[in-house]
Design a protein that fits this description.
Layout lengths: L2 H17 L29 H10 L14 H8 L7 E3 L16 E5 L3 E5 L5 E8 L3 E8 L8 E4 L1 H7 L13 E3 L13 E3 L66 H37 L9 H18 L51 H4 L3 H15 L13 H14 L12
Antiparallel strand pairs: 1-2, 2-3, 3-4, 4-5, 5-6, 7-8
Helix pairs in contact: 1-5, 5-6, 6-8
């Protein structure tokens, strides 16, 4: 008996068994990809904005200031360069600090393009979700008891109960949820809920959230509670519309801002969606390449061989990410949006002062519909095969070398502007540079 052939056959059987759950129409799976050896979410050492801050704290390069109003919150935001204008207020009890969350004491969220901070008045911890180039979203808490050496503590199982599911694309990720909420802040899940992204109709967004800003005749689920599930079918969305002040709804004095800005909400739901797609593309590509390596050995193929099935898997997640980046399924605005803070995301500008973070808020979220998260360390750290595929397809779409109906949201002018901005601001995006008209 040829023991090597037997071993290879066993490896092939194991490989096929591992692939079976993935056969289908590309629907995200809940098979705990993060435990795959190619990912090793639990055993790997994170490298993100929080690990960097903790390193500086341990070395004495920075200090976190503690105050009686919000503990470490203000200092954490300052050190992470997270703007106060990003404040969002969510009053549904959809956090592990649910006991101290209510419509009168909502949970505040603050964010920039890489890190999200959660805080509740009288909460025991500051909550953190940090984007990690290899691991996706990594969760931490910071104890709100003053200490000589504050320590961010990594959280896994507790957070992944909600943050690793189909709603997060089957990876450790971020989730903005819209729910019907009773007067105490309890989510009425029997009436359904929505995972909110830039692809969601406005009428399904922000249930359980405060929303400050004007949006014309468009309606959303924010700023309202109901007495019971029986009231949900007759809930009047007009009552929560076009609210510019939270006075009478919540005492904003304990908070760092008085708003829960509609523009910040829209950017946050776009970001969380793209973060999850980036993580999914990274995970699936790494898993596909690991399985490909096993198959090469089992079938005596040369080590560098990339099978057709592996290529299809990589291109599948790459295409999903590409469509998210180009906001193919974004819900158009039917009335202009006006926020109530100075919130504005930031990204590199070209020589004409144009940026992929420039807001439009008239007919869509961004003036140039291409996600500024294409500049993120998480995108830059994607495995080379999927990143090259995305760049190749991105240039193909933007240069209009092939007309495809799914990108009809992009006008000729949009494509030219985005292409020129990318060529001017993203050095590794060089495909076809010399043929730009």
């Amino acid at each position: 008996m040829n023991i090597n052939r037997v071993m290879r056959s066993a490896a092939l059987i194991m490989m096929v068994s591992g692939l079976l759950p993935l056969i289908g129409a590309g629907i995200p799976q809940t098979e705990h990809d993060c435990e795959d050896p190619a990912i090793n979410y639990y055993g790997s050492t994170p490298a993100n904005e929080i690990t960097e801050l903790q390193h500086r704290l341990d070395n004495g390069d920075v200090h976190l200031e503690f105050n009686s109003k919000n503990g470490y919150l203000s200092s954490v935001l300052h050190n992470l360069k997270i703007p106060l204008s990003s404040q969002l207020l969510v009053f549904s009890k959809t956090s592990f600090q649910r006991d101290v969350i209510s419509p009168r004491t909502p949970r505040a969220l603050y964010f920039n393009e890489r890190t999200y901070i959660g805080w509740v008045p009288n909460g025991s911890v500051v909550e953190v979700a940090a984007q990690d180039p290899k691991l996706g979203t990594v969760f931490y808490t910071l104890n709100q008891q003053q200490a000589n050496k504050p320590k961010f503590e990594r959280k896994t199982d507790d957070c992944l109960q909600c943050h690793d599911s189909n709603l997060t694309r089957g990876v450790p990720g971020l989730l903005m949820r819209s729910v019907y909420t009773d007067h105490a802040g309890q989510a009425i899940f029997s009436e359904g809920s929505y995972a909110t992204t830039d692809e969601s109709p406005l009428k399904e967004r922000w249930g359980g959230w405060y929303v400050t800003g004007k949006h014309g005749l468009q309606r959303h689920m924010g700023n309202q509670t109901v007495e019971s599930a029986a009231q949900v079918p007759t809930m009047n969305l007009n009552l929560g519309a076009n609210i510019t002040s939270l006075e009478g709804k919540v005492d904003t004095n304990p908070y760092l801002a008085k708003t829960s800005d509609i523009a910040a909400l829209m950017v946050a739901e776009h970001q969380t969606h793209i973060h999850n797609l980036i993580t999914r593309a990274s995970y699936e590509t790494r898993r596909a390449l690991r399985y490909n390596s096993v198959m090469n050995e089992a079938l005596d193929r040369p080590g560098g061989t990339i099978s057709e099935s592996t290529t299809h898997r990589i291109e599948g997640v790459g295409e999903s990410l590409l469509q998210g980046i180009l906001m193919v399924k974004e819900q158009p605005l039917t009335s202009p949006i006006t926020g109530t803070s100075k919130f504005k995301p930031d990204a590199l500008k070209d020589s004409l002062g144009r940026s992929l973070a420039d807001l439009d808020l008239k007919t869509r979220l961004f003036r140039y519909p291409c996600s500024f998260l294409i500049y993120s360390p998480e995108f830059d750290s994607l495995p080379i095969l999927v990143k090259e595929y995305i760049y190749r397809r991105l240039f193909e779409v933007l240069s209009e070398k092939k007309q495809q109906a799914e990108f009809s949201n992009l006008s000729h002018e949009d494509r030219q502007n985005i292409l020129k901005i990318l060529l001017a601001t993203k050095p590794d995006f060089t495909a076809g540079k010399n043929t730009l008209p």
